Amino acid sequence: MMLADRRVLLVDDNVGLREGLALALQDEGIDPLQAGRGQEALELAVAAPLKLVILDLNLPDMTGVKVYRELQSALRQFACIFMTAEASEGLIEDALRLNPLRLLRKPFEVGLFREVVRFAMAS
User: Fold this and answer.
1) Cα 78 from Cα 52, distance rounded (Å)
2) What is the pLDDT of residues 30-61, one digit of tens each?
3) DSSP state for residue 86 in the 8-state scheme
4) Where would I find the beta strands (DSSP E) of 12-115?
5) Does residue 52 sit in helix, strand or coil?
6) What are the residue boundaries of the structural domains of the chain, listed by start?
7) Tell me, what DSSP letter sits at residue 63?
8) Selecting from 3.20.20.70, 3.40.50.2300, 3.40.50.980, 3.30.1330.60, what CATH number does the domain 3-122 have?
9) Is the pTM of this model over 0.70?
10) Alpha-carbon span 31 to 60, nearest angstrom
11) Are 100 and 67 contacting, i.e. CB atoms less than 8 angstroms apart?
């Protein structure tokens, strides 16, 4: 399996949560690229092929939906998992219209996170 097949972009402005999830990904043999802002995520995504993007809906500089739409034009194909603790219903509806693999509501169990990521990586 090529390295690109094991590369995931993890985007969340909560450093503690992001680093914890990155460790869970590493335990699964996945190479997580981390970003705390939408613009940073876009720069990382263009530089490296990705199989999966895990995106918080609320970022300091833009919404996860906006990041997703920008990534769609930059990347060929990728799966997406959205995460949110307190997004508005409108933003959640916008996210769900993009057909993500899953929308995880924070706080969520690490076991569920691993399961969803395993499914995404196997697809």
Assistant:
1) 5
2) 999 999 999 999 999 888 778 899 999 999 99
3) S
4) 31-35, 52-56, 79-84, 102-105
5) strand
6) 3-122
7) B
8) 3.40.50.2300
9) yes
10) 24
11) no
